[in-house]
What does this fold into?
Amino acid sequence: MKIPVFVILLAGGSGARMGAGKNKILLPVAGKPCIRRSAEAFSGFADQLVVVCRREDSTLIHEAVDPGSLGFPVSFVEGGDTRQASVSNGLAALPDEKAYVLVHDGARCLLDAATIRRVLTDLSEHGSGVASVPVTDTVKKISQDGFVAETIPRASLRAMQTPQGFCLRDLRAAHALAAQDHFEGTDDAALMEHAGYPVYLSKGSRKNLKLTTKEDLMMAEAFLASDASENGNLPSFRVGLGYDVHQLVEGRKLILCGVEVPHSRGLLGHSDADVALHALMDALLGAAGLWDIGHHFPDTDPAYKGISSMKLLEAVLLDLKKHGFRPANADVTIVAQQPKLSPYIPEMVEGLSKALSLPRNRVNVKATTTEHLGFEGRKEGISAQAVCLIQEIPG
It folds into this structure.
């Protein structure tokens, strides 16, 4: 007879150390809420999931978890003032039967099936299974005055992770004893040790990191990006390509990347016809899956007649931000036989750097000719191409 597996998913964080302004488990990691990734990890393993969270976050967490699509029952319990109290609340919500319980931190959203499988195997064989990894740094114990008191052999040290798996009745007994003794542990393994139960350490994973800082979030997305072909997750970076062409005519100013370039002719268009910015805007919109500039600023709308393309770029960037994206870099190539553009490129780069809120080394503008070939070479018009990278905004 299969022993049921219950999972307590802790989701009571605040995100203060990450500067997120909200519970960090609600932050998107490669396009999916952290807590959702943590819950999905137990697909095929859990018979029931209990999410423990703060009351003020319960609605948002319920929406992020989307319990109806997980394939196993999910309930939500209000957390306590401490991690230990939150786990106790989760235990109280589980049936009183012979079962295994896995306690997992919702901020560890890169948990893989192999780690869960090892924890459950050790739990069935040894009565407990706690994910852990060897400590790779040299660890030293220090004295009160800041000097080294002792170097601890790292071969005997392990860094604890979750899930931490135990027999349900044993963990309940350990929590009851801890409450009786006013003992506070930093994890459930510590409570089991306090109660005299043996704790077996399972092999964890270096990727099973806990999201605590912004750097942790970047590492998590990098891991997911590197595994994209294997697990179907898409990276949080997107690439966009833009291309535009305008005709050179008399009586128009020549505006490129927001800079007026002295020339006998300018580019024809409904706006200021800044072909370089138009290509860049199409690249940004395309990367975010937001159509193109013709969709957003149609040439049939008098509101955009003669408008500065820098103003349009501002609107595009606001739209990107609204959809959770920001530019990471931009590279623009202007193709023109005349005039010579190299004297004006530093000013173009400076303006784009400010508009995109990017350092200058992340913005590039190049100019080239076609050696008199094509419409650019015949001086009939100017074309531009742009490539950009955009990134999802954490939170």
